[in-house]
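May I ask for a single protein's sequence together with how it folds?
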Amino acid sequence: MTKSSFLQSGPVLRAVLVPAIILLAAGCKPAAGPPGGFPPPVVSVTVVEAKDVPVTYEYVAQTAGYREVEVRARVTGILLKRNYREGVTVKRGESLFTIDPAPFQVALARAEADVGVAEARLAQAKREAARLRPVLEARAVSRKELDDALSAEQVAEAELKVARARVAEANLNLDYTRVEASISGIAGRAAVSEGTLVSGPNVLLTTVTQIDPMYALFGIPDREHLAIRRDVEAGRLKLPEGGRFKAAVKLADGSLYKLAGALNFTDVRVSTQTGTSEARAEFPNGGGMLRAGEFVRVVLTGAVRPGVIVVPQRAVLESPKGKFVYVVNAEGRAEARPTEVGDWTGAGWIINSGLKAGDRVIVDGVMKIGPGAPVKVADATATPPAVPAPVLDEEGKQQ
């Protein structure tokens, strides 16, 4: 800059420098503000409150029939006929298989003939004893002969009972050649075909499964069971009355089974192979939607965590010392608050300690602040600016 240009700009410089010199001379300081003179960052907060939060537990389960019965023959013989169609519903007492009855009919006839022989022997023994009684009074026979006759009568009566029992057994075996369903349900595939020699109960013929209602079997890990018990003792968890959890089923495709069930059994024993306690839920299955043996997920509801604080997941941050959240203190500054988180519920964390009802927890904007930084809380009721609709040309394309 030349001397002439400097002299020409002198009035302008004097207009700027003179007020600044006067302020410095007076000892005035500019107002404190954010670094670089930027306004405080805008953050959104949520005011936390203590409330009862429902708790859900979800486990992998396998369905099983309410009753599953193995169908076996009670007698040995040739399987003559299958009397049912595989995979359909059968009723209790319905004939499923027929064992060749011919040998058992012969055995019944033999037993009935033995009854006739025993009856004849008994009649003869009674007549002999009746003849000897008056003769004994006349002292024509000895007392021993009459006693022998009476004993023969008793033996004949016993033999008749044995013969009649054999008839009953033969009738029973003949009835057993008709293999019946002991329950109503879905009959499975036949395990043997016609013409096979069936060695009584040793051979499985088929199974019958009652599918309404349906069971869902699952295991509760021992560690989780212990945590639930400790939470209940500490008052952090309230279980449903009588432990009657409500149950729902998620099918293999992720859809929810429309009928609700209930937990009806929990084993006190822990499996040494899996480290879990077996549990069972029962579901109505009138439409047959659930099939025995499929893998599903069981969701248990009914437990409540009373008076807990929940914050959104994105509000919880991680530091070398643990988890923390930012809260807006009374001075309008961000305060880092160490917290102890509990279970996950929905899209938030349950806070066991570190927060109290009424605290303003910063949810959005945490990446723009630090401990002690001044913040401005966004107006939750403000309406966002409208976005203009795109202008389309005659072909429907955006201009």
About this structure: Confidence is low (pLDDT under 50) at residues 1-33, 381-392, 395-399. The chain has four domains: 42-51+308-377, 55-65+211-304, 66-98+177-209, 102-176. The radius of gyration is 46 Å.
